Amino acid sequence: MSPKRIALLGATGSIGASALKVLRQHPNRFHIAAVAVGRQWEKLLPILEEFQIPVAAAYDPEAADALSKVFKGKVLSGMEGLLSLVSDASVDYVLNGLVGAIGCRPTLEALRCGKTVGLANKESMVMAGGLINAALKKHPESAIIPIDSEHSAVFQCLAGRPASEVESIELTASGGPFRDWPEEKFDAITKSDALKHPTWVMGEKITIDSATLMNKGLEVIEAHYLFGVDFDNVRVVIHPKSIVHSMVQFRDGSLMAQLGCPDMQVPIQYALAYPERLSLQVPRLNLAEIGKLEFFSPDMDKFPCLRLAYEAGRKGGTAPAILNAANEVAVALFLEEKIRFVEIPKILERVLERASIGPLLSFDEAVAADAWARETARELALSGS
Ligand SMILES: NC(=O)c1ccc[n+]([C@@H]2O[C@H](COP(=O)([O-])OP(=O)(O)OC[C@H]3O[C@@H](n4cnc5c(N)ncnc54)[C@H](OP(=O)(O)O)[C@@H]3O)[C@@H](O)[C@H]2O)c1
User: Is the Cβ–Cβ distance between 321 and 102 less than 8 Å?
Assistant: First the structure.
């Protein structure tokens, strides 16, 4: 079997690092045909060298320029560079580990070119889930295999069964670092408190999203579009140990779950090798040692971001794109220590109240909604209104 030719988007990130670990374990099965990053070209250099990668894209033009002076292969830049990289005939499979809405167009482009996308970039489905599903329908040779651990778990539990046989999807959530904090202490939450995730080591944006529970909210919207299940039937259950990665309740009374130690190499490898299961050197679960697994309902008053995500998801159209873009701005401002943790949901709520939500018929509408939401969120945050 000739190796699958992978374009790895986000090679310098946390998903990128886990993907590289998987790829190192199976050099005969996978070959990296191209990589993309935002701006960290120096961090990319040893990766290009180790995997002998012929094509690299840096979104930032200055980074692309610096890279082209020291790298002998082809260097691309900007959104054009990302799109040309994913559509190239030398690529069979796009692993999208970009962070944020910037990942959406490359996902759509890869599907339009009939490729398989291993999707970690949940913001793609949140920004334009309906358009992505339309592209999948129009290009039946294309496919999405989810990489988010929860959606990989659901995908594995479904094992190809249709949404009509599903009663509900139960997405598990660790609850983040503030699960047991009293709400009165939320005013004093600092950036370093919020960056301490109890079970996963991830990029900064998703770590803050996990602390507000917006990550779970985005995953609810992602699950709705990926698996065609109504919002009423996509539920969240708090499971602090992150051992059960998610569950599917079938109409015959069976509740299927996928379990494992929390390590993103597992869903990444599954998405790369699907439907095969290859060997992988990761720790195994010892349930007798773990002893007990706990599950609770989420507290949507304490974590309003989860409620806002359900509301935006149910409204549909441009609402999820607006929520996502406003969240990206609010999280970035929190990471720059310009706003407090408790202001994140307040800004999102106000942006959604002001939004005129319309149907999402084209990618241009998603881009316009995203741009409006970013500007409005920034104005609201910096004016303190
Ligand atoms: N980390 C996890 O365990 C995990 C688990 C489930 C799902 N996810 C999802 O996976 C995605 C990636 O998360 P992450 O934690 O890996 O993020 P991360 O560590 O922040 O990495 C993001 C990657 O995207 C690149 N990037 C950022 N902006 C870009 C742009 N404009 N153009 C091209 N590349 C750009 C970054 O490049 P530079 O390094 O050059 O900035 C970096 O390689 C997110 O959607 C997240 O929700 C992550």
Answer: no
Q: Which DSSP string do the residues of 179-228 spell out, in sequence order? A: TTS-GGGGGG--HHHHT--SS----HHHHHHHHHTHHHHHHHHHHHHHH-
Going by C-beta distance under 8 Å and a sequence separation of 6 or more, which residues neighbour residue 186?
A: 178, 302, 341, 342
Do the beta carbons of residue 171 and residue 223 sit within 8 Å? Answer: yes
8 C-alpha to center of ligand 1: Å?
A: 11
pLDDT in tens, 154-208: 999 999 999 999 999 999 999 999 999 999 999 999 999 999 988 878 999 999 9
352 lines ligand 1 (CB under 6 A): no
How remote is the CA of residue 204 from the centroid of ligand 1, in Å? 9
352 Cα distance to chain centroid: 22
Asked if 325 contacts 369 with a C-beta cutoff of 8 angstroms, the reply is yes
Residue of minimum CA distance from atom 5 in ligand 1: 148
Kindly list the structural domains of the chain, giving each domain's residue range(s) and its CATH number in brackets, ordered by start.
4-146 (3.40.50.720)
